[in-house]
Amino acid sequence: MGHKVVVFDISVLRALWETRVKKHKAWQKKEAERLEKSALEKIKEEWNFVAECRRKGIPQAVYCKNGFIDTNVRLLDKIERNALTRQSSLPKDRGKRSSAFVFELSGEHWTELPDSLKEQTHLREWHISNTLIQIIPTYIELFQAMRILDLPRNQISHLPAEIGCLKNLKELNVSFNHLKSIPPELGDCENLDRLDCSGNLELTELPFELSNLKQVTFVDISANKFSSVPICVLRMSNLQWLDISNNNLTDLPQDIDRLEELQSFLLYKNKLTYLPYSMLNLKKLTLLVVSGDHLVELPTALCDSSTPLKFVSLMDNPIDNAQCQDGDEIMESERDRQHFDKEFMKAYIEDLKERESVPSYTTKVSFSLQL
């Protein structure tokens, strides 16, 4: 009995597969058109573009104009080319020289500074963040070349008096730590330009000795427990930016106009019921942000559209913090919320600077996100 041979017509199989391929390509084209018109796809594209820009350190003002994001890839390429051009014009050894004077540390596995740091007194910058370090050692006085102390989001509960020996210190950032006081010796750092003590939650005052800081242009003491503007701040004659938002202020001092150089004043999330008329004497003030929930009286000239002042009244929606947590968990979650709030306001204010005018009031909606 012979073998049976099954004969297939190859042309039929080929036609079948070609038909299926055509149908699949047609479906792919239709799906691509649907996604192109989809708002979700546009949002995803913008999100990825913003994430890429942030990863590359591109300022928001470059790609975001009046709230609209330019996702043109050519824009990103142009920015990168410009950055490369600037880098190529720098001396080749500049990066090596600068890194030799900068100390960086991050990560929750760090509970104290490495012992070898004590020998590196030539350092000009410390950048320490997101660690469990609680104490800044007294040997910091040996770092006479120190220009920048950037110490945000650690567990620091105390600053040593020896910090006053850093005569060349320009910037001090101790935001979102556990500080309850600032050493008066900091007033000896007469070259200090920026001071950020925000988000410590427990600060109630600044020492009067900080009145000696005549070169300071930036002070951020938001998210603490100040009941009034510290006297030393009113004596910082070159101050241009003051953020005292999210505290317990009920009024402003009548001599607030002593801050003649003040340009940006952030007061939102306090308990102010009025703004003093002396505010009108702040001739260089261009941005004023307050919470309008409790305000019943304010100088009408502040809202005059003919002035260069951008007056923003935030109508906050309060968040109920009565949660079933222990004290430490509440404090940490509060710090996280305050940090998110500051990042939100930072982005909002950057956007305001791009606008010709601002709305008469703004409703800031708070979202609870779990990522």
UniProtKB/TrEMBL annotation:
PROSITE patterns tied to this protein: LRR
Keywords, alphabetical: Leucine-rich repeat, Repeat
Taxonomic superkingdom: Eukaryota
Protein name: Leucine-rich repeat-containing protein 2
Organism of provenance: Callithrix jacchus (White-tufted-ear marmoset)
InterPro entries in the cross-refs: Leu-rich_rpt, Leu-rich_rpt_4, Leu-rich_rpt_typical-subtyp, LRR_dom_sf, LRR_domain-containing
Pfam families in UniProt: LRR_4, LRR_8
An example Gene Ontology CC term for this record: cytoplasm
Gene that specifies this protein: LRRC2
